[in-house]
Fold:
Amino acid sequence: MSRKKIIAGNWKMNLSHSEAMQLIRDVRDWKSGFDGEVIVFPSFIYLTEAVALLKDSGVKVGAQNCSAKESGAFTGEVSAAMLSSIGVEYLIIGHSERRELFGETNEVLKEKLKVALRHPLKVVFCCGEPLDIRQAGTQEEYVSKQLEESLFALSDEDMLQVVIAYEPVWAIGSGLNATPEQAQQMHAFIRGKMAEQFGKAMALQTRILYGGSCKPDNAAALFRGADVDGGLIGGASLKANDFISIIQSV
Ligand code: PEP
Structure:
């Protein structure tokens, strides 16, 4: 089955306002025969303008985080409803930086998924093992638990709105990408888990992205895996040329 490819750029807490607007325009104005989805994830404060600038361009806009709460007295938080109300389409949930630096557990992520899907935002759900787990060879068990505890209670209808990103933590921002074989092996494993829980048809429809030090010079090899449906790109999404060349390598 052919799945629409996705190249997504997670800008994290980077770029001034003018740099962000320029990058949005560069990605927008770049015309190609790419028939997959391109998504950018700027900082919250640039989202309204990003949505306006990218209207009808085919480039989609996502947010990097949202509150697990619906609304109310949660100073400093941003709700899924707010994001949806300004035209944001996607949301990253479960990025390893949120898990590690902000203590987001599988349980919290499950709550975020529920609130996001209710509004309805599409979700890029990140999973992946840290280095000690990879060294111990227990990455499959580790990722299984992440999927089971956050995703497996979803209905089929909700699961259709979720893209999975496999991001080995040791590869994120480290310059040390997974080998194409390691990526494909984990992607096939994740697809197998999806089949066990949601059935084969759903597993075959689910897009699974690779993330972790993906760059123009390694993207083509990483994306060749049969179960690799594109990439979630961090550092290399901040430079228009690099991001565009990664899109071209799909
Ligand atoms: C990420 O943070 O999702 C990511 C993949 O980062 P990088 O590409 O910089 O490793």
Q: What stands out?
A: The CA atoms of residues 206 and 244 lie 24 Å apart.
